[in-house]
């Protein structure tokens, strides 16, 4: 720039034009290239992204994949499968004893929204959908736990089966809470982590309780 | 929040004007207005969540200690994090109690009833007492009332957590009087310190005390009937089979707990 020090522009010449900020990553929809690819490729790309996030939840490490490219497909799939498995768990077929599909669905999404709002109000730096994404993906261990519980219940429903289910659900609950804390607590000021962790703990506790008290018809 | 705004702006730069999340024109602008409105509302509530964990712990413990100085107005922290978390905790405990007592809700859902009860009490009674406070010229704002009543639910949480698991009527009455009474006394003392005049103090504090204690009574007895029936059958010499077989596990664990505590009580 040293050579430009003595360059001067006459005041009569108007300076005009367009300043465009080059965007770092080309959004694929910009040039429409993904419109021509086969549907299989599009679906496989999204499935791979969802699968990668599942792996990140199962082995929670400090990585930003879950936060950077958030998506809500995984949480939707998990929520729907958990709600389907929890449906109609009551001994009396005449009464609405067990949680219905809509109840579980609403609890998960309403709970996730409340936790997200709470963490934002406490001064968190994470965005709304990123937080929903993390909370939804961390339901994975509990969904796996529900599957295990249903299989155990097929074998019998005595005291031993209850103890096995209790241990499994406790382990999955701890896993879910730790996984979501690993991702979410970093976005908070350090002395307020406990304030964010407690509602997450309550949220997964309620879901674990619904899983533990499920008895099939 | 900042990064989302930056993303939104970058998105607007590379797409056309007035576009928001891919929606053009009027719908896009509407979408952006809704988002701005949501974030503006969050910013209104932000000061009420500005709290440290040690402060929350201190306030929880303070909510059980009645103040003695009622001659000058006592300070109430206008904070909403603690009360909100206490209401959600009460919802979780209530859910546990409803499942344990095999409550069957016909016109609705268990979760809906629990949330409705707890939030209805917190918001409804706060509003009602605030209205009475306005009539009685008490110096208290709505947020302070919400905060006071919310922290007053700490006693309810402790009582119900203990008595939903150990079903002893006498134990419940002791907890009701001591724990419930302490938290009610605290709220009453704070309100008395902010009200002038004997009649006004009586009206305000009498109403609050009655509602608070009756709510705890209601929460205990509304979800207690079935377990009581099982307790009576256990006392008899012959153990008839359980009439309700809905959830065998909590019943079994409760039966075990009850027999253990009964034997312990008898040996003492």
From TrEMBL, chain A:
Species of provenance: Oreotrochilus melanogaster
Protein name: Protein YIPF
Lineage of origin: Eukaryota, Metazoa, Chordata, Craniata, Vertebrata
Locations listed in the record: Golgi apparatus membrane; Membrane
Principal localisation: Golgi
Keyword Transmembrane attributed: yes
Name of the gene: Yipf6
Superkingdom: Eukaryota
Family recorded in the similarity comment: Belongs to the YIP1 family.
Keyword terms, alphabetized: Membrane, Transmembrane, Transmembrane helix
Membrane topology: Multi-pass membrane protein
Domain Yip1 as annotated: residue spans: 58-210
GO cellular component assignments: Golgi membrane; trans-Golgi network
Gene Ontology biological process: endoplasmic reticulum to Golgi vesicle-mediated transport
Automatic annotation (TrEMBL), chain B:
Gene Ontology, cellular component aspect: Golgi apparatus; plasma membrane
UniProt membrane topology term: Multi-pass membrane protein
Cellular compartment(s): Cell membrane; Cytoplasm; Golgi apparatus, cis-Golgi network membrane
The entry's keywords: Cell membrane, Cytoplasm, Differentiation, Glycoprotein, Golgi apparatus, Membrane, Transmembrane, Transmembrane helix
GO biological process entries: cell differentiation
Predominant localisation class: membrane
Residues spanning the membrane: 80-98, 110-136, 148-167, 173-193, 202-223
PANTHER family in the cross-refs: NATURAL KILLER CELL-SPECIFIC ANTIGEN KLIP1, PROTEIN YIPF3
Family to which the UniProt record says this protein belongs: Belongs to the YIP1 family.
Role noted for this protein: Involved in the maintenance of the Golgi structure. May play a role in hematopoiesis.
Name of the protein in its database record: Protein YIPF3
Upper taxonomic lineage: Eukaryota, Metazoa, Chordata, Craniata, Vertebrata
Gene expressing this chain: Yipf3
């Amino acid at each position: 720039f040293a050579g430009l020090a003595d360059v001067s522009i006459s005041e009569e010449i108007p300076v005009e034009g367009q300043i465009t900020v080059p965007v770092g990553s080309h959004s694929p929809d910009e040039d429409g290239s993904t419109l021509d690819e086969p549907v299989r490729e599009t679906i496989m790309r999204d499935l791979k992204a969802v699968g990668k996030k599942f792996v990140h939840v199962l082995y929670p490490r400090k990585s930003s994949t879950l936060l950077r490219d958030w998506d809500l497909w995984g949480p939707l799939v998990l929520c729907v499968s958990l709600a389907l498995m929890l449906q109609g768990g009551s001994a009396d077929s005449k009464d609405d004893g067990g949680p219905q599909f809509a109840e579980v669905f609403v609890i998960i999404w309403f709970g996730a929204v409340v936790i997200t709002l709470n963490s934002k109000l406490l001064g968190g730096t994470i965005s709304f959908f990123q937080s929903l994404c993390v909370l939804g993906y961390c339901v994975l261990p509990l969904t796996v736990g529900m599957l295990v519980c249903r299989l155990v219940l097929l074998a019998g429903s005595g005291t031993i089966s209850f103890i096995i289910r209790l241990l499994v659900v406790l382990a999955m609950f701890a896993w879910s809470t730790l996984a979501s804390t690993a991702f979410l607590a970093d976005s908070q000021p350090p002395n307020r982590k406990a304030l964010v962790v407690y509602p997450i703990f309550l949220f997964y506790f309620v879901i674990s309780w619904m899983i533990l008290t499920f008895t099939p018809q | 929040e900042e990064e989302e705004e930056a993303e939104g702006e970058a998105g607007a730069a590379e797409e056309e004007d007035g576009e928001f999340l891919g929606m053009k024109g009027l719908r896009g602008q509407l979408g952006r207005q809704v988002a701005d409105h949501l974030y503006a509302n969050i910013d209104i509530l932000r000061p009420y969540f500005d709290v440290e964990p040690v402060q929350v712990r201190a306030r929880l413990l303070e909510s059980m200690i009645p103040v003695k100085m009622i001659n000058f107005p006592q300070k109430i922290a206008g904070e909403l994090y603690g009360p909100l978390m206490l209401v959600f905790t009460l919802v979780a405990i209530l859910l546990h109690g409803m499942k344990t007592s095999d409550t069957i809700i016909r016109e609705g859902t268990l979760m809906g009833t629990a949330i409705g009860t707890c939030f209805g009490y917190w918001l409804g009674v706060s509003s009602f007492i605030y209205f009475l406070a306005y009539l009685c010229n008490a110096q208290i704002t709505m947020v302070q009332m919400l905060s006071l009543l919310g922290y007053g639910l700490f006693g309810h949480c402790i009582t119900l957590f203990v008595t939903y698991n150990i079903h002893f009527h006498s134990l419940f009455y002791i907890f009701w009087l001591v724990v419930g009474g302490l938290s009610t006394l605290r709220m009453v003392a704070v309100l008395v310190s902010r009200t002038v005049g004997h009649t006004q103090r009586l009206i305000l504090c009498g109403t609050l005390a009655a509602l608070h204690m009756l709510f705890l009574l209601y929460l205990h007895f509304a979800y207690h009937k079935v377990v009581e029936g099982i307790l009576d059958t256990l006392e008899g010499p012959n153990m008839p089979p359980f009439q309700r077989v809905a959830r065998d596990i909590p019943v079994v664990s409760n039966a075990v707990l009850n027999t253990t505590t009964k034997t312990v009580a008898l040996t003492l």
